[in-house]
Every structure is written in C-alpha cells, then in structure tokens.
Amino acid sequence: MLSKNDNELLTRVGPGTPMGNLFRQYWLPALMSRELPEPDGAPLRVRLLGEDLVAWRNTDGTIGVMQNACPHRGASMFFGRNEENGLRCVYHGWKFDTEGNCVDMPNEPAESNFKHKIHATAYRAAEWGGLIWVYMGPADLQPELPQMEWMLVPASHRIISRCHQSSNWVQAVEGGIDSSHVSFLHSTVASHAPQAEAARGLFAVDKAPEFRVAPTDFGLLIGARRKVNEQEDYWRVTPFVLPTYTVIPNPRQMGSGFFVLPMDDEHSWWFTISESPRPDRPGTPPYVELQPGTWKQTRNLCNDYLLDREMQRTVNYSGLPTNRVQDAAVTETMGPVMDRTKEHLASADLAIIFMRRMLLRLARQLDQGVEPELLQHPEWHRVK
C-alpha cells in the first residue's frame, strides 16, 4: 500500500504538482493527426494534465495548441475563426499565433501597441507517427521527439485509436502492466474447467505466475513466468516505457501498445497503436466501440458496461466482451482516484510496486533539478 502523501504525489498531475511537472518534461500524445485533417479547419478542445486547451491546424499545415480561454475576457477559443495562420476569438477579434502572441487586436485603435503586451499560454506541438504531440514543459529543456518503432514505418503499417477512461491515470497504467489478471479477467469459462484441458491455453495452465522486474534505460522490463510442464516455462514479457507507454506482448515484433495520458486527476485518455488494420474495418481496432460523437465507450460506468450474467455463466469469466471493456470495468469502478492506503498488495503486484517507486523517485528527483535521462535519448524508445 501507499501512504496518503505518496498516493497524492503519484496521482495528482495539475500545474505545479510534482507528478504534473514530471509529465511536462515529455512529449505527450494529445490528438490523432486525422482529427485535424485540413488547414484552417475547425479547432478542437483538448484537456491534458488538468489544463483546458484548444488545438488547430494552421494555413501552412503546422499545429497550434493554446489555452482555451481567450486572454481578453475568457471566451472559449474553440469557437474561434481559424484563418491566415492564427486563431481569432469571435468575441472581439483578437488573434493569436502558435507561439501565443497576439498578432491582431482589431477593436483597439490602429496606433495602439497593446497587442504586443498580450501573450496566451501556448505549447509546442509536432506531428509525428500519426499523432499530434504536445510539449508542456520549459522551452529550454525541450527534448527530441521519441522514436518508437511504429513511428518510423509508413502510415499503412499502423492504426491508432483513442478512448476516454473515467478514472485516474494510474489505475489504467497499473492494469496494463499486471499480467496475472489475464488468467482471470480476460479468460473464458472453458479455460477454468478441469475437463477442458485443450481449451485452457498457456494463461490458464499456470494462474499464479512468478514475476521478475528489471529497471532499464527506458523504464521497466516485466517478466511473468508460467509453468507449461515439467520441462518448459512460458515467459510473457511486458516493456513499460516512461512516462506511461506499455508494449503489449504479441507475436508480432513492432512494439505496438498503448499510452495512458491524464486528462486531469479523475479522467484519462487511452491511445492504442495496433500494427495492421482489419480489412473489414479499416482504421478502427475492433475492440473500441464508442458512443456516437464522443470518445466514451458504449459500455461504460453509467450502464454497468452492459454486464451479461448469462455470458459470465456460460462464455467468459467477466460477462463482458473485449479486453478494453473488461479493463475499464475493473479500473474505473475503483473510483475516480483509488485510495491506495486501503489496498493489500501481493507477490503478483511486483510490477506495480516497481512502477510506483520509479515514478515517485523521478518526480522527487525532478523537484531537486535532476531530469530523467531518457529525455536525452529518443532512440531508447525503440522497444520490442
């Protein structure tokens, strides 16, 4: 378990918090490139690390990300006009460039120099690997963009999706690095039936894996060893890349997985990268089913994820379809921010213990002026 102070330090990411400052040292995915498809198109709201922002694609194709509230009198820039390489507030016409400079103030006299004294909070943005990345840290410490392997291949070789999670980011990350739950939450009824040996699979043969965790230059390498028989072991190896990227073990080699990014202390974004689209549903992973016009899953906290008790009795362990729905159900129902002073960790939680200690240590070190070494080595992100 964690102390109350450590739980607060780990989970809070707003401006000025130690963990929020750590996240702001990294380039973070904010949008998919296809969400801003054309120059001078409609701006989009973005909430990240407790800040309300707006993003747009300039006339020249570059990306701007700035505070949503106009510095004049707080009107939302989401309603702004995207024109001639800048975003203009529709309330009084003030216009801002991607650096946050006020470049036009048409409701002031022509001779006024007041516009030169106004500056909006704006963040560096870059388009890379099918995502729009944002750097929210000190300008003089801006690192290079990460070089994960799926970023370095043609766009036809990957698909990217995102969805909303109604919980603190740590709960979602912990679920991603926890290999022992696969033998239960993601299992079938047949895999737990002693008479159905052929249907059980590697995860069901040994439901109590032995864990080993190794700190690495990119984060952690998490191994879960299961006994297949007297002569053979099965190792499931999960790389965890700072600050929150988890590579899902699979037969392919490109290192695809998911990011969990904090919207704020009680909500998160999942960005999932898959290696090849299904021909029948191009561009959309089959496990993400969203409510129309939202990034929320159709099955969600408000409708108990449409839990099917008959399915739970006859088909699978949870009564819920797809890993993403199953993961969301168990992590969101912990509450918006789980109270880790009340948990009881076991040996199967070794990876979670390592991850928490690492992030808490890095946040405290940054508070003392020590930056994460990974930021100087974008090539360390090339993890299989």
Kindly summarize this structure in a few lines:
This protein is of the alpha+beta class and 384 residues long. It is 16% helix and 24% strand.
Class of secondary structure makeup: alpha+beta
Strand segment tally: 17
Q: Please compute the radius of gyration using only Cα atoms.
A: 23 Å
| Main β-sheet, spatial strand arrangement | 11-17-16-15-14-13-12
The poorly predicted ranges are 280-286
State the helix count: 7
Chain-averaged pLDDT: 92
Distance between the termini: 31 Å
Strand content: 15-25%
Q: Sketch the topology as an H/E string, one letter per element.
A: HHEEEEEEEEEEEHHEEEEEEHHH
**What sort of overall outline do the alpha carbons produce when their principal axes are compared?**
elongated
Description:
- By secondary structure, this protein is of the alpha+beta class.
- The chain has 7 helices and 17 strands.
- The protein has a 7-stranded antiparallel β-sheet. A 6-stranded antiparallel β-sheet has the order 1-10-9-4-3-2, with no helix packed on it.
- Helix 3 (169-176) packs across helix 6.
- The radius of gyration is 23 Å and the shape is elongated.
- The chain starts with a helix and ends in a 17-residue tail after the last helix.
- Residues 280-286 have low confidence and may be disordered.
SSE layout and pairing:
Blueprint lengths: L3 H8 L6 H6 L3 E6 L11 E5 L2 E7 L5 E5 L13 E2 L4 E2 L6 E2 L5 E3 L17 E7 L2 E5 L23 E7 L3 H8 L24 H5 L4 E6 L3 E9 L5 E9 L3 E3 L9 E6 L5 E7 L34 H6 L8 H10 L17 H18 L17
Antiparallel strand pairs: 1-10, 2-3, 3-4, 4-9, 5-6, 6-7, 7-8, 9-10, 11-17, 12-13, 13-14, 14-15, 15-16, 16-17
Helix pairs in contact: 3-6
